[in-house]
Amino acid sequence: QVQLVESGGGLVQAGGSLRLSCAVSGGTFSRYTMGWFRQAPGKEREFVTTISWSGSRTSSADSVKGRFTISRDNAKNTVYLQMNSLKPEDTAVYYCAATLMPPGYYTSARPSDYAFWGQGTQVTVSS
Question: What is the pLDDT of residues 73-90, one digit of tens each?
Answer without folding.
Answer: 999 999 999 999 999 999
